[in-house]
Amino acid sequence: MTLEITNTSGLLVPANEMQSLISFAFKDLDLHPDCELNMVFVEDEEMTQLHIKWMNEEGTTDVLSFPMDMPESPEQAVTLGDIVISPRVAGEQAKNAGHSVEHEIYILATHGLLHILGYDHVELADELIMFELQESIVARWKNS
After folding, report:
1. Which domains are assigned to the chain?
2. pLDDT tens, residue by residue, 123-143
3. pTM of the model
4. Tens-place pLDDT, residues 18-45
């Protein structure tokens, strides 16, 4: 697994833990261990610009995913895409949810990966599946 992490947010992020979490998620989701993924932590101004440009929605957001290649089988190593996270928004959401900023970032990173793999939460049934899976992956990773 290749995970390239870039942090231009000006805030501290759990980069070492991201390597471990994404490696765990790759195994859990039966992805080829040589798949590549980029993760970028950005400040609000950049996230707002990306949100407007790619989602046609005003304001900042917590996480955006930009898929590149979809593996057709577990034997296929591909460049999955990019996950962009706003640590500031993650901090606000963590405070509201009553857990740590790090935990919120773990959830957002897993959420972003699931979006890259085709999961979505437009419909309530799909939201339940996706959110349960992201929580399960993070919980099992923490307990591993």
Report:
1. 2-142 (3.40.390.30)
2. 999 999 999 999 999 999 999
3. 0.95
4. 999 999 999 999 999 999 999 999 999 9
In the chain, the N- to C-terminal Cα span, in Å, equals 18
Bridge partners for 37 per DSSP: 3, 81
Q: Are 41 and 7 in contact (CB under 8 A)?
A: yes
Work out the pLDDT band at 49, boundaries 50, 70, 90: very high
Q: What are phi and psi of 79, to 5 degrees?
A: -85, 110
User: Where do we find the tokens 């990306």?
Assistant: 50
Helix-helix angle 87-97:44-55, to 10 degrees: 90
- The amino acid sitting at 41 is F
**Identity of the residue numbered 42:** V
Q: CA 70: distance to chain centroid?
A: 16
Look-up: residue for tokens 């101004």? Answer: 45
